[in-house]
Specification:
- By secondary structure, this protein is mainly beta.
- Helix content is about 15%, strand content about 35%.
- It is built from 4 helices and 21 strands.
Length: about 325
């Protein structure tokens, strides 16, 4: 159900050079949205319609499998915007089972929840553990485990053989096919990039996938050449799929299949009736209909305005 207290604005057409955004006398103005005194901003963040990843979660015993021991857990999963919890518990017989048999028993409990519709995804097991993978539309929110642990390694991009041009925005070409969905936007963090423009890339950015190896990096600009082969890590966030359907459905100009970049902001109302009440606002710029250069400039203008205001905690990174 839409959040009726949230003000949502969709900018289908963005102006060049970030002209939709301005900061004057301490007031932030974005085309088609109410002007907001920056001193009233409680918090702000850059948002995007992320494609998301089906994260692989490997469950293992915290110690050697023992007899007469209870291994239990609770899996939380987000399905259609709601978080569901599914508990499981398994007590080993007096004689400890083999690792293969033990993990097969845990996987069978999870498979039962999948078959019953309490969870969504796939599960498998081996002597090395239980592998449970959610889906892009139903990401795992968390685990609570007893005598078990879980690892959810992040997806990484290949630095060896990679390049990123000195353009606005920069285009990164991974050293090998990345396996991400073409047309999707992902949250990517670079660490260890060198070169004159390194500071522009050693941060978290939103990347728009344009081919099997190429990704356009929003909130980057031509500040100097960079060497990405030196990167110690290029990590794709395990964020689940994020859309704005719950808040933006029915808003003129919004389409669930469109990529959006924008600003989520909470500000204190100054109206006489509800003065001091925190009001959320979502401003979405169409990153599909507009060129990547224009969409990038829109985001950079928002960040520059908030950084320059000294009134909102906003770093130079996304």
């Amino acid at each position: 159900m839409p959040n009726l207290n949230k003000k949502v604005s969709v900018l289908s057409t963005l102006q060049a050079a970030g002209a939709d955004v301005s900061l004057s006398n301490g007031v932030l103005s974005i085309t088609g949205t109410p002007s907001t005194p920056v001193r009233n901003i409680a918090n702000a963040s850059i948002v995007a319609s992320l494609a998301g990843l089906p994260v692989v979660n490997t469950i293992t015993s915290t110690a050697a499998v023992a007899g007469s021991t209870t291994y239990s857990g609770n899996i939380e999963q987000v399905i259609e915007g709601r978080t569901y919890s599914e508990p499981f518990s398994y007590t080993t017989p007096a004689v400890a089972p083999s690792d293969t048999a033990f993990y097969a028993s845990i996987a069978a409990l999870i498979q039962g929840a999948l078959d019953g519709g309490q969870l969504v995804g796939t599960v498998s097991s081996s002597s090395g553990g239980v592998v449970f993978t959610g889906t892009v539309d139903a990401p795992i929110a968390g685990f609570t485990l007893s005598n078990l642990s879980v690892s959810s390694p992040a997806k990484t991009l290949t630095a060896a053989g990679s390049i990123a041009g000195n353009t606005t925005p920069r285009v990164f070409e991974a050293g090998a096919a990345h396996g991400l969905t073409v047309g999707g936007i992902y949250r990517i963090t670079f660490v260890g990039v060198t070169g004159a423009g390194a500071a522009d890339l050693n941060k978290e950015v939103f990347g728009l996938v344009t081919s099997a190896t190429e990704i356009t990096l929003f909130n980057t600009s031509a500040t100097g050449a960079v060497v990405t082969t030196t990167a110690s890590a290029i990590t794709v966030s395990n964020d689940g799929k994020q859309t704005f359907d719950s808040d933006a459905s029915g808003i003129t100009g919004y389409a669930a299949t469109t990529n959006y970049l924008g600003l989520a902001v909470d500000f204190l109302s100054q109206n006489n009736v509800d003065a001091g009440i925190v009001q959320p606002q979502l401003v979405l710029g169409d990153a599909t209909a507009n060129s990547v250069v224009v969409a990038n400039a829109f985001i950079q203008a928002i960040i520059a305005a908030l950084n320059g205001s000294n009134a909102a905690e906003m770093s130079a990174s996304l």
